[in-house]
Amino acid sequence: MDQSPGRRAAAYWFSDGLPDIVLGMMVLVVSLWALIWQILAPHRGIFDFFLTTTAFLLFYWKERAVLDWLKSRSTYPRTGYVRPPDEAVPTAGLTVLSLSPAPVEENVTRFTRRTVMVVFWVFYMLYTSRQPPFWLVPAVLAGTGAVLYIGNRNSEHPYPAWWALILALSGLIFLPGMLTPGVPPHLQPQLCGVITGGWLTTHGLSTLVRYRRANR
Amino acid sequence: MSLKARSIQEISQIDRTIHEPARLAIMLILDGAGEADFVYLQHEYGFTQGNLSGHLARLEEAGYVEIEKKFKGKVPLTVCSLTGKGKTALAKYARQMLGVLRPQ
Predict the structure, then answer these.
(1) B71 to chain A nearest CA, in Å?
(2) Which terminal CB of chain A, N or C, has fewer other CB atoms within 10 Å?
């Protein structure tokens, strides 16, 4: 991580874990909602996709306002206010997941493209596939863990390798024979969302606990 | 490193308001972050309250820093940011120092 004032300011936005908590809680709530709905009234996955897309649009619209409200009560009184990072302007080439390092000397982030959009594409792949093969959910979770780790490893909010490995390996429970009686195929996409949301929330909460201990 | 006579002349032109290490740190932090409040600046450089106040007052007097008092939620904030004049002065200072210290 570059220690220039601009990059430090960008990392400061994520130092309390609140961005991960807000994203994780959103994913967790919408996935639990979809899961319960699917159990009570089985329906096509595309409806869950519309529900999830609405939640992501709401998140995109209100994320900064919610974070500002939370930070003004927990972070700013302890370590002060600094201007939130702007979302980095997409460069030529891959805009969804660019592996080039973030620009230095600037208070910018790629959180939306490198974390939020990655999670969104997970839902897209799972909810829009009609007959997902048995290996799809384990493969998607393994891929998500790898992409979140690699895409953010030099950024202002890296995920630890061991933590990404947990997400990557969590998909193994969906393989036949790992759980008795096994996860029904029509509930697997929603459970994948619950796991991803829980993973993000837990990471954010552990970061928040460390932050509060360091800044009593 | 040897300095030419022209470089020696340039040293006398350097902006003393920015040249002081603590004030230079404040200017660089604000340049990178965009805006930051009193507590953040204290944490970043390890200033005491009085020390930071003094340096900010000096930078504000020179027109390099703008200080705004506001609230974020219920928290009172003293938010500092670089003015256009401050950014220009910082860029000029960087050019001068690089020019002066360039190996001959």
Answers:
(1) 9
(2) C
ipTM for the predicted complex comes to: 0.83
Q: CA geometry: angle at A191 spanning A123 and A176, to 5°? A: 110
Q: Which of B36, B73, B75 has its CB closest to that of A82?
A: B36
* Nearest residue on chain A to B34, alpha-carbon basis: A83
Asked if B33 and A82 come within 8 Å (Cβ–Cβ), the reply is yes
CA nearest to B86, candidates B46, B35, B44: B35
**Three-state DSSP class for residue B37:** strand
Q: Rounded to an integer, what distance in angstroms lies between the CA atom of residue B98 and that of residue A198?
A: 50
Residues facing B66 on adjacent strands: B81
Chain B: nearest CA to A61, how far in angstroms?
20
CA A5: distance to chain centroid? 26
Of residues A84, A157, A83, A80, the one with CA closest to residue A118: A157
Query: Which pLDDT tens digit goes with each residue over B3-40?
Result: 566 677 778 888 999 999 999 999 999 999 999 999 99
Q: Which residue has the tokens 């919610």?
A: A66
- Say which residues have a Cβ less than 8 Å from residue B102's Cβ, sequence separation at least 6: none
Q: Are A95 and A128 in contact (CB under 8 A)?
A: no
| Separation of alpha carbons A27 and B39, rounded Å | 33
Using CB atoms, pick whichever of A12, A69, A82 lies closest to residue B73.
A69
Q: Contact at 8 Å (CB) between A203 and A20? A: yes
Q: The pTM is what?
A: 0.87
Q: Which two tokens stand for residue B100?
A: 């002066």
